[in-house]
Amino acid sequence: MNIGNTHARKVAQFDGHTGAIYTLEPATEPHLFYSGSDDRMVVEWNLADPHQNRAIAKLTEKAFALKYLPEKQLL
Q: CA 19 → CA 5, 16, 37, 61, distances in Å?
């Protein structure tokens, strides 16, 4: 894909959510990130191993936003 001077390429595919993903949030470790979805799950993903994911929360509502506070170890 080429958009102006920006080039994008698919690096990996992350499978796990059963609904639309609404939010992504980086973790302290550069190879980890979190996602929130229409399926009401919050999942931790590993860029080094796309198949290594971990559901860390089942919410009562859809997750439209996430914020990681590393100094308090809160997501």
A: 32, 9, 6, 13
